[in-house]
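Instructor's aside before we start: the two examples that follow are unrelated to each other. I chose them only because their records fit on one page, so don't look for a connection. First example below.
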Amino acid sequence: MTRCQVPAAPERVGTFQNMQGKTVRGPDKEPLGHTIDLHKPDYFHGGEYKQHLYMILGRATSLDYCLFDNFPMDEDGFPDWHWFEEGPPDYLVHFLEELERRAATSRAAIETARQRLRIFPPWEHVPESRKLDEGDTEFAYNRETWDEQVSRSGRHSEADPSPPVTSKRILGKRRAEEITSVPSRQTGKDSLRPASDAAAQSASKRRRENEHCDSDGVLKSPLPPPPKATAFSDHLSRAPPPPKQPATTEQGRPPPPRPPKQPSKPLPEGAPLVLPRREVTAGLRNFVRQTLACGIHVREAGGGGDCLFLSIAACLRELCDQQRDASALLEGRAGLSVTALSNLDIAGHLRKLVAQQLHRMEPETFLDLVLTLVFTERTQGARWQEGWSPRQELCHAGLQTLLTANNVVAVSANEYGRPEDLVILYRQGNIDTPWACSDGMTKLTALRGAVADRFAQMGQTHWGTTTDIGLLSEALNIGFVVFSSQMQGQGRWIYGLNLKRTDYPFWVLVYNSGLVHFQVAVLSALEGSAPYRSVYRSEDVPDALAQHFALCSGMPMGQRDQGGVN
């Protein structure tokens, strides 16, 4: 059978990724557009979508010939033009502003380093660059002109006898010879001449060349031989280095001793939280605007398996900057000195606090947690992201009988066995089954230690979950409001952490995207210049936020039950 088909799309087909840097033109370079699928995936935040959108629009050379499919629509079914009217993504604007701010503070240091190194001329004195040949894609500078501008902008200091750093020492012999052949703005085409090896090796050689050249740069006579010098290796082997003389001041007295090196200082109090800005999902943004009467965005604190703990670290730093008594609370309760540690160190400390809480959990609660992890690992299969196997740890501890259990009902000592024996009552389906576990206390302790070690490791071994957040609430005595990128039931946008107390003196806001990634959540006023807030004292939490938290968690803020994590 022969199949014939007319191609519906004769032009090349590409994705957003492989179209970057390309220009859409016709065969004869005529302006051309393209067909663009503007569908926004659910896992794209607003800034990421705008980045892709603006990039793909810039590939076309004529928007008159563009066809848009899946054009973004608003809630009323009309074209949503705000994607095309808000400019570049917020995180990119923030990044450029941060670069400009750092440039303003580091410009003086860069200029000082430039003058000390004597490698680069000031920007306003950089000589003209030329291509080495017509088909070359690289531009090069004339070596002599470059070194002349360097020496002109920063003369040698009499106190610094070191030779100037020339382009030869940076570029190497072969490349320096090529660059010397490139005409500068001061000379014409006739002045091109190859540079000899000796000329590329020292500035004194170039001076001798200039003395024996005519006005066109051509050698008038052979150069005199250079002065004989001992090889550098011979100099090292034959002549020992001169003894180091003690430094003296102008009055002949030795200089005062240098002060000892101080340890790195912690971040100053009140330092701004500079984290890249990201957008939340449209559903959460609209809910917060309508119900809480404020705006919401997120700040990216980092990833690599530690996103939850890095986000909480950033929140704790902001909390200690704004509330002075928070530092004393964290240091006294959890031994955590936020101002003296980096965010990465704080994240490591938080993981260790979670591991300590695992050792304090009731046996039934701890085994239920492990069984939940075993179930998640089994259902996800190849999609299991963590770098350990709860099932293997349960079997390695000798508790593989629980692999078929739904949950653990009770754990008690075996009255008819040894002191270390246990009776574990677990539920399988609708049936409660008692299991006389020989040496159960030892096995349970080994399992606790293995799981705690996994939870304490930084990186991809264990990804933080709402379970870690609940344990940290108890360890830090701080409450967490965890916004979700997806609705959690009818009209609910906050995760229920299954806590038994909510009487925390402080509350911090975090955001979970797609059950995968945590970020710092930030609330802001819709109008005016009210500051962005990621942390609150309990009495300052907005009423609308507290009410929605009570709806989602089943417990209002400020209530205390028995303590601990359910």
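Example two begins here.
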Amino acid sequence: MKYLIPVLLVCSVFIILQCTLKDNPVVVMNYGTVKVQISDLSDSTATGANIKLKPKSEKLKQDSIGNYIFDNVKPGNYTVSVSSDDYYADSSQISVYAADTAQVNFFLQHKPVIGVSINSLNFNQLDVGDTSSPMSYNITGNYLEDSLTIKAPDGFYILYNNEYISEIQLAFDNNNNISDTVYIVFSPSEVKSYNGSLRHTSLHAADVVIQCFGDGLCNLNINPNTLNSFPQEGRSDSIYVTTQQNCTWTTTNNGNSWIEINPSSHTGSGTVIITVTENRAKYLGRNGKINIAGHEFTINQNGGDCNPITTFSNQLNFNSEGGDSVGFVETDFADCPWSSTNNGNGWIEINPSSHTGSGSVTIIVAENNTNREGRNGIINIAEHQITINQSGADCNPITTFSNQLTFNSEGGDSVGSVETDFEDCPWTSTNNGYEWITIIPDSGTGSNNNVHIKVDPDTTKHNGRDANIVIAKQTIEIIQNGDSCSFSVSEDTLTFSASAGTQTINLNASFEDCDWSSSNNDHDWVTIQTEGEEEGDKEINIQVTENNTGEERTGTITIAGIEIVIIQYHH
């Protein structure tokens, strides 16, 4: 009996454990949970998705806020995959741990609709050639980036916002609808209007619905179909276009800017106003072609008289040296030809000798070096007669000096002569204010073979100097070379006590413009008052700071390339 009771207790415990394991396996195995949330890129909840958990799919349930849940998932590594007809598939690797929830979030991307094709869209109200066999058009729609593309059939165009294009992209609104007007163009002068709506019924399919109005190709009647010539001052004429109510037609001046056409386009019957501006460009007249509703017109406009005028006075005066005078010829038309002539006066040149339209003219008169009494001549420019007067010949003095004379710093004297064509010809000279140059004599009458140019010694400019003078109308450049600079100082050694102090030295330069510089040579206890670049003579202050180093100190400074020794005692 004493052995039976323990045996019974052991059996009871075993039975209890077996029942517990059977009814509540999680208590022993510690399973995990997988939670899946799915939305699209616009943050809307994506519906209709197929969710799988691999390597082993467990039973899937959905909670109250739209999450998908796998319960009782053994710890380990899994792949969660999502697929849908409306979205691109996606997958994610996860790890599941005991007594824990693994969260997976998917953001799915809508599949775009590419190339939705309506291959046999019949326009039952379209009447082109054969009413029993309506035309069919291939329209392609793309639901990509929220838009739909409409392509015109081969050989046709779409007219949209007054532009001829082969395809057009229309944007969907927030309700995924499009409403717009599209014109199919059979030729530049024959337009068909299609007014309707384009829509897509879901995120992955699209329908195109177009309602057609009209009787087929447009019948256009132009009255009148020719125009009379326009006068030179311009005029406005009108043309009436008769056609069906929904037929759109256009006008163009084909680049002839002097012809204005209003309106540039119209739908249905209407009046066209043609305005030709005043002809200020073609004296022989002009013409150009325009197009109105497919009908070509030739516009002819008369020309007028050239009426050239010049800005020259009736008489022009020149001195013996000659010269030029610039004027302007103005014509009423750009294509008016005109010419000029010097009437055999070879000393007068006219440039250009002929021209078309308005333009500048130059009259060039040569120097008079043969006629002391003066001369005159008559010329003609664009039918305008002009008298040219020129004074008598000049004396034409010349010198034997070269155009450039060079002197050293000590100066000197250069002798030459002045020669004139006539003994009573006066001449003068000038040093142009350069007092270091003297011309002897500075004027005369007739020829002179003893003219002196004297240059003073240069004591101020080591780089030399130059000037331009004039003798009997000849400009002569005078160049005087300088000497090299030299410098000296009043002291080459300065001695200071231990206290701060200042001493002065004098720098002498051989020329006023001799450049020099100074440096304390990085001795920060020495200051040169004029440290930097200078020129000429100078008094220079040298300052030292108090010497607290306990030792005598010595340094050198440099002024104009001269080294000066600085000595300072200590306390």
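The first helix runs from residue 4 to 23.
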